[in-house]
């Protein structure tokens, strides 16, 4: 959804700005403690954070703990009938209390500012992609027009520099008349291109410094980093902090490369190396190729000269200390990753860490459907789950959300337990049960959309958001708008969260008045028999006339135990609330938790 995505992108942009400020502050405060290479490496943390919003949290932090829990959690299958409760009979007709009404929604995006912003963002990426493709073509043209360096003396010097730098992979060296400063170019097969006039105008010593610098760029994979930075600039073309960060990163990279060169030289050569930089500062091309080069802006050259003037060989202790500090900083920065991960854009996964979980084998009930079943035994605190992955995946709540819409309306006084009647405005709906005045009980049983939309309008979006934040309802995203956000739109919740919320609802642990909880509970009652009561709410998501999401959530209240459940089905021709209800009742019947009459 453009609404949700742009909201998250804007939020992440603010977080990225804060992280950049933090990195700049750390560089300044710990400048004397960090080596030039470590200061440069800090920017890789920033690069990783830039990628985080487009990577799933499970990729960034694999769920080994959850896998171990599932491995040791045991299994439960229909053959274990009788272990969870006693049988209870009901004379209620399932066809009645599992009736499910839903209206189809369209995939067409709702026009608005988020959609416009998404279009602008995509347009910017297309333009930036074209810009970088143009630069890449210039580099390829430069490589094709360059000739292998013929000067035997310089080629021998280049071979010596390669050996001195510890680079074993062959790197070709070319000369060109189209550049005024040397560059390293290429991704998988890097090469070094030097100005053709450099050979005649510079001394052998100066040429050595230049070759060492470009070889070390290749050694440290700076050309690959260039491509990663280009990709990030395409995505974050609108973000001035990202542009500033990459400017600083390039400057730190050159300083780190200078320090690597200086580590290979004797102290008497430092001044000569600095003089070579100054010499090339006067020969910067007006056109800058997207490649690693010894040259740079005059301001950058000044910073590099100051670094060279103050350079001292790195002691072993400073290197070790720098690595320790880098590790600590990396741990702190990477702690922000879950906030920025792809899962956070839509809140697609719920982090469920309970240990008292038994794995169920209920696949025979879900033939033809991608579904899950979550059961929670209130007194024992035991979870029983079929398909844990789907059980923690957030999807649209559809009509099951109406439980909490009613609670919010009762809490704000929009309706009361004694006065919940709303008048039908005469609009014709596809279900006869909707075309009449409604109370909370009738609206809940017939899942009347207009009734709960009216409640939400009177409660107000800000109050609804406040309530959902307080109780922790799924991803708490109401950006889809009143009357839409819970119908295959922005609001998402997982089956596990449905069960946890219902358990709190049943135990009066939600921040709502007891009489309001009681009123909603009574509206959820489906049937009672032999001392047992079944409460529940179905939900169906229908898109373009096709059922795509089915829910049945609720609880069974017996004399000695209360079982809270949530079933979700997707992927089948009848993926609706009625099917979720049928599967649930079959499971409850076979496990002798709640049995139906034949």
TrEMBL record:
Question: What range(s) does the Penicillin-binding protein transpeptidase domain occupy?
Answer: 388-588
Q: Does the keyword ATP-binding apply?
A: no
Q: What molecular function does GO assign, one term? A: penicillin binding
Top-level taxonomic group:
Bacteria
- Ranges of residues in domain Peptidase M56: 13-308
For this protein, the parts annotated as crossing the membrane are: 6-30, 42-66, 116-135, 177-199, 228-246, 322-340
What keywords appear on the UniProt entry? Membrane, Transmembrane, Transmembrane helix
Pfam families, alphabetically?
Peptidase_M56 (PF05569), Transpeptidase (PF00905)
Provide the family line.
Answer: Belongs to the peptidase M56 family.
Recorded protein name is Bla regulator protein BlaR1
């Amino acid at each position: 959804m453009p609404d949700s995505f742009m909201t998250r992108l804007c939020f992440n942009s603010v977080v990225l700005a804060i992280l950049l400020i933090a990195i700049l502050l750390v560089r300044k405060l710990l400048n004397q403690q960090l080596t030039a290479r470590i200061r440069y490496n800090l920017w890789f943390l920033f690069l990783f954070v830039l990628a985080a919003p487009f990577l799933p949290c499970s990729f960034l932090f694999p769920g080994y703990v959850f896998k171990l829990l599932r491995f040791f959690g045991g299994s439960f299958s229909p053959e274990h009938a009788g272990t969870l409760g006693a049988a209870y009979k009901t004379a209620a007709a399932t066809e009645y209390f599992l009736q499910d009404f839903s209206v189809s929604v369209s995939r067409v995006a709702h026009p608005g500012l988020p959609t416009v912003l998404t279009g602008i963002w995509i347009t910017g990426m297309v333009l930036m992609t074209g810009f970088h493709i143009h630069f890449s073509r210039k580099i390829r043209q430069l490589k094709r027009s360059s000739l292998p360096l013929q000067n035997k003396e310089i080629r021998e010097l280049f071979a010596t520099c390669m050996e001195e730098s510890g680079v074993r992979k062959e790197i070709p060296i070319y000369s060109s008349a189209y550049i005024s400063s040397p560059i390293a170019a290429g991704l998988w097969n890097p090469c070094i291109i030097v100005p053709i006039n450099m050979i005649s105008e510079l001394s052998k010593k100066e040429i050595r410094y230049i070759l060492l610098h470009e070889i070390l760029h290749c050694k440290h994979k700076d050309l690959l980093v260039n491509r990663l930075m280009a990709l990030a600039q395409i995505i974050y073309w609108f973000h001035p902090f990202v542009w500033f960060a990459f400017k600083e990163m390039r400057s730190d990279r050159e300083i780190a490369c200078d320090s690597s060169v200086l580590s290979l030289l004797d102290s008497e050569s430092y001044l000569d190396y600095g003089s070579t930089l100054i010499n090339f500062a006067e020969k910067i091309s007006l056109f800058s190729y997207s490649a690693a080069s010894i040259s740079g802006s005059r301001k950058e050259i000044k910073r590099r000269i100051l670094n060279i003037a103050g350079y001292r060989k790195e002691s072993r202790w400073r290197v070790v200390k720098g690595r320790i500090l880098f590790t600590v900083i990396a741990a702190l920065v990477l702690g922000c990753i879950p906030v920025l991960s792809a899962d956070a854009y839509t809140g697609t996964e719920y982090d469920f860490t309970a240990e008292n979980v038994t794995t169920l084998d209920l696949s025979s009930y879900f033939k033809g459907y991608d579904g899950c079943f979550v059961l929670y035994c209130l007194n024992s605190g035991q979870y029983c789950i079929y398909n844990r992955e789907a059980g923690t995946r957030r999807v649209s709540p559809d009509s099951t959300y109406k439980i909490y819409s009613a609670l919010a309306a009762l809490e704000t006084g929009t309706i009361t337990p004694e006065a919940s009647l709303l008048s039908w405005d005469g609009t014709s709906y596809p279900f006869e049960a909707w075309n009449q005045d409604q109370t909370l009980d009738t609206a809940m049983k017939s899942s009347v959309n207009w009734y709960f939309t009216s409640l939400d309008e009177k409660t107000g979006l800000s109050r609804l958001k406040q309530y959902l934040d307080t109780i922790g309802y799924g991803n708490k995203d109401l950006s889809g708008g009143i009357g839409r956000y819970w119908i295959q739109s922005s609001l998402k919740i997982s089956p596990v969260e449905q069960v946890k919320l219902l358990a709190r609802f049943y135990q009066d642990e939600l921040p709502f008045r007891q009489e309001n909880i009681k009123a909603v509970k009574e509206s959820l009652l489906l049937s009672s028999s032999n001392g047992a009561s079944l409460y529940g709410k179905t939900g169906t998501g229908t898109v373009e006339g096709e059922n795509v999401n089915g829910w049945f959530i609720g609880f069974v209240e017996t004399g000695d135990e209360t079982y809270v459940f949530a079933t979700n089905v997707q992927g089948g021709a009848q993926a609706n609330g009625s099917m979720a209800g049928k599967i649930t009742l079959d499971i409850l019947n076979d496990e002798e938790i709640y049995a139906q009459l034949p």
